Amino acid sequence: xxxxxxxxxxxxxxxxxxxxxxxxxxxxxxxxxxxxxxxxxxxxxxxxxxxxxxxxxxxxxxxxxxxxxxxxxxxxxxxxxxxxxxxxxxxxxxxxxxxxxxxxxxxxx
Length: 109
Description:
Order of helices and strands: HHHH
Shape: elongated
Helix content: over 70%
Strand content: under 5%
Mean pLDDT: 86
Largest sheet: none
């Protein structure tokens, strides 16, 4: 049985973003900058895809639903893993925003 899925370019961008985030956090840990936040980001980079994969594999997903549609349906039903995923993505995006702002301030000085 074949399910609908997101296009390949989406998955390439998604995992590329997570890979770049992972390496940037490792570099910042190596420089001993804001150690706790980087550890949290590293945990989230691994935890979010794993939690999503495990919950989508154990749940019943309709054949015509892609991952995003399934995620929205689970979010409407109030499942914990969707809230965890959203909170995790927000933490990662805030981390990137802070990182870019630090770079911008450092380059203007």
